[in-house]
Design brief:
Length: about 425
């Protein structure tokens, strides 16, 4: 059972009405929150044959260099460096900016790797509450957390929704702080006509298998200057500048040729992937819009989304059951939704003792974490399955609301 998952008996799954719903609505095969769109196997094999012939498997091979150049052009950035994964990219970003002590203000509402990267760089995270609309760091709550030990702000574009980059930049400039964006969800996102990756001192992408664009495992780091990119490239290559020069303690963060080959093929179809997700996102909104207790995140102005995630908030008072109960019911129906991000990073034992981790300091993040549910969305998901997911959610709301109304009525009659 996943952390936070409610035991199905807690909401009377054995009730005849819910048992009947599950029996009728259960899908024959599991539908996951995301699935990678695989490239053509024969074409990929053909690319691999070239790697076999060259016998050049890693260390800035020709496919690595080609992918780096093509991604830079596609994303609209100048100084991009490929990595073996996004977590190592964050570690190197911190090291490249010489942030290896003190404090960094960050969000509790993200994947744990965001905060773990600070810990590994001997930096103390300071958790800041999130904005109730964007679900990103709330700029109005950042300045009160700044101390003489504060070195940077590490913000996350949650679900690919841009942070308030202008407000964060103003705060950083006033206090002399670096700004790093975890843009793991924000591949291809544009804000006010330019790539969201061009904001801040550095931005990090993840190309994990669950992402919109994937290299199986992988990531990238986008810098504001070529000088910084050169330092990043040395740090991800054990700190080696050339055959006889080591500039400092580095790490192995390089992407190999097999990953790059997969990425090049993914890049050919990524526009179609985004287009298909756009259609499915609109369909979800159309089918779930009228259901009480289901709220979609509002669009952020001046943003070109790539529809990486489909997140909704479940209000138990209006929906008739809690998010956890709906999550469990959907699992019974073979619909594998996810609670991104529950529990909060700040609640993990390694961070919960920090003063900033107290629930009373993070009321919005605490509420959202208990309500958010990410529904299946990926390029090869068919509209019929989306309709089935929405019909299951709709019927669950009707059944549970009717059950609560009946229980209330019975209570009135017995008093």
């Amino acid at each position: 059972m996943e952390p936070g998952m409610t035991n199905t008996s807690d909401f009377s799954i054995d009730r005849a009405d819910l048992a009947d719903l599950i029996r009728r609505r259960r899908l024959p095969d599991a539908v996951y929150v995301t699935r990678p769109t695989m490239p053509d196997l024969r074409q990929y094999t053909g690319v691999l044959e070239g790697i076999w012939d060259r016998k050049w498997l890693t260390n800035q091979g020709p496919l690595h260099e080609t992918l780096e150049a093509k991604l830079s052009a596609y994303l609209g950035v100048e100084h991009l460096s490929l990595f073996c994964n996004g977590t190592i990219a964050i570690l190197v970003a911190l090291e490249a900016l010489r942030i290896n002590s003190g404090e960094v203000i960050t969000t509790p509402f993200s994947f744990p790797a965001t905060t773990h990267s600070l810990y590994w760089n001997r930096v103390r995270p300071v958790f800041c509450d999130i904005d109730p609309v964007t679900l990103n760091l709330d700029p109005t709550k950042i300045e009160r957390l700044i101390s003489p030990e504060t070195r940077a702000i590490l913000a996350v574009h949650v679900y690919g929704r841009p942070c308030n980059v202008e407000a964060i930049e103003r705060i950083a400039n006033v206090h002399g702080l670096q700004v790093i964006y975890d843009a793991a969800h924000a591949f291809g996102v544009r804000y006010k006509g330019r790539s969201i990756l061009n904001y801040g001192d550095m931005s990090i992408l993840s190309f994990h298998a669950t992402k919109l664009f994937t290299t199986v495992e992988g990531g990238a780091l986008v810098c504001a200057s070529d000088v910084r990119r050169q330092r990043v490239n040395s740090l991800k290559n054990f700190g080696i500048a050339d055959e006889e020069t080591v500039i400092g303690p580095g790490i192995n963060g390089k992407m190999n040729e097999l990953q790059a080959a997969f990425g090049l093929m993914q890049l050919e179809s990524v526009d179609l992937e985004i287009s298909n997700r756009r259609v499915l996102s609109h369909l979800y909104r159309e089918l779930l819009a009228a259901i009480p207790g289901v709220t979609f995140l509002s669009d952020i102005p001046d943003t070109e989304s790539t529809y990486a995630y489909l997140a909704v908030l479940i209000d138990e008072a209006h929906f008739g059951m809690s998010r956890d109960d709906l999550f469990a019911l959907l699992r019974k129906c073979n619909i594998v939704a996810r609670k991104y991000f529950y529990p909060l990073i700040s609640s993990a034992p390694c961070y919960s003792a920090l003063p900033s981790a107290a629930s009373s300091n993070l009321p919005v993040a605490e509420r959202v974490a208990k309500q958010v549910l990410c529904l299946p969305i990926y390029g090869t998901l068919d509209a019929q399955t989306v309709r089935a997911v929405c019909e299951t959610i709709s019927e669950a709301q009707v059944v549970c609301s009717a059950g609560k109304a009946q229980a209330a009525l019975m209570g009135v009659r017995t008093t």
